[in-house]
Write a structure and sequence with these properties.
11 helices, about 375 residues, 4-stranded parallel β-sheet, about 30% helix, binds adenosine monophosphate, alpha+beta
């Protein structure tokens, strides 16, 4: 019988999950506050309501056989309540652990991972004490609701404290600034017994937002083994089920946990065409109780995020229908700078080689 997956959140992650669920013969129902949420175009039914609307969440759960989330800030009290009554196999716990940067890093440390040095900040006095402990340069981040570099500032000297004056009474974390060689991430899916993982991505960020993801990640075998083994051990020790992405900073042979997300991850979008199975399909398989498949990389792959400023170039590439270049546009109705509008996956050396000819985010683009 056809099962229904309920998805809390209707952004691009919900959209791609709904697409894969359909391929596995499942229905989807999706909840999002925006009436024009991307996932509403492909979900079988949709509920336009706020994430803290208890009745709407209950309605979503009643219509679903199994529920997942692609939005990370679902209010904890509501989700805990729902978990008691409905089938939410990932549970609230990984979301809870990820919702607060201090809790997230303490949890990482407690479960075998290394993190940059950090301290909790609640006011001016604790900020000064944290700077004393961590030293300059350091990174100030709000504890909750931060994403893609929002609510963050790098402090290099005492004068920089002024940058965070307006956030001084917001609970925050102060982290050592890591002069990393590169950033890397891994996406895993666990059915509670076995954990599969996708090939590690080596990531380049632009203004705190993921820009490019290269796979296979250029890294030593030592770092690769350490990253995979540490991530799986962490997931096992935490008892998480379903999907988990972890982002790291790598410096020499040191692998430092930056953050995690218990949902499909932007750095895992390359898996749709770059691997034999992808992050959305394996999450759907987990949710539907099907055995997981282990992914293989098809060919060297690069994923390029399309932000608002890249949109014209992306449309231009889409028109060309190039071999092994896969343009995903999420159908967002409003295009803004820094807003994630889509992504492009270049699979195989030849396609990857064509990437350089595109002048993304440039005002004068010869290809336009
Ligand atoms: P986050 O939201 O924590 O993932 O931060 C966004 C991006 O800012 C990261 O991907 C890094 O490129 C950069 N960043 C964050 N924290 C640090 C840090 N402690 N040291 C150096 N760079 C950082």
């Amino acid at each position: 019988m056809c099962k229904t997956i309920g998805i809390i959140g209707g952004g691009q992650l919900g959209l791609m999950l709904a697409e894969e669920a359909a391929l596995l013969g499942a229905r989807t129902v999706c909840l999002d506050p925006a009436a024009d949420a991307p996932a509403f175009r492909v979900a079988n039914s949709s509920i336009a309501a706020a994430f803290d609307d208890a009745d709407a969440l209950e309605k979503l759960c009643r219509q679903s056989d199994v529920i997942t989330y692609e939005f990370e800030n679902v209010p904890s009290r509501l989700l805990i309540e729902l978990e008691r009554k409905y089938n939410i196999p990932q549970g609230f716990e990984p979301l809870f652990d990820a919702q607060d940067r201090v809790r997230e890093k303490r949890n990482a440390l407690a479960n075998g991972l290394q993190t940059p040095q950090f301290a909790e900040v609640n006011d001016e006095a604790s900020l000064l004490a944290a700077i004393e402990q961590v030293g300059y340069p350091c990174v100030f981040k709000t504890r909750t609701l931060g994403y893609d570099g929002h609510g963050q500032a790098v402090l290099r000297c005492a004068e920089d404290i002024a940058k965070v004056k307006n956030l001084i009474d917001t609970p925050a974390i102060l982290e050592q600034f890591v002069p990393f060689d590169y950033e890397a991430s891994i996406v895993m899916v666990s059915d509670g017994k076995d954990i599969i993982h996708f090939p590690i991505g080596r990531n380049v960020h632009r203004d705190g937002i993921l820009d490019l993801c290269f796979v296979p990640a250029q890294m030593s075998q030592t770092v690769q083994n350490q990253l995979i083994a540490g991530s799986k051990e962490f997931m096992r020790r935490c008892g998480y089920r379903g999907i988990l992405a972890i982002e790291y900073f790598v410096r020499g042979n040191q692998v430092l946990f930056n953050e995690m997300a218990p949902r499909p991850h932007n750095s895992g979008h390359y898996t749709i065409e770059g691997c034999t199975t992808n992050q959305f399909r394996e999450l759907a398989r987990f949710l539907l109780g099907k055995p997981l498949q282990s992914p293989q990389l098809v060919a060297p792959t690069v994923m390029k995020n399309i932000l608002g400023e890249d949109f014209d170039v992306a449309q231009c590439i889409a028109k060309q229908g190039l071999n092994n270049v896969f343009v995903h546009l999420y159908g967002k109705t409003e295009c803004r700078p820094k807003r994630k509008m889509g992504h492009i996956t270049f699979v195989g050396e030849e396609a990857v080689g064509t990437m350089a000819q595109w002048d993304f985010a440039a005002t004068t683009n010869p290809q336009k």
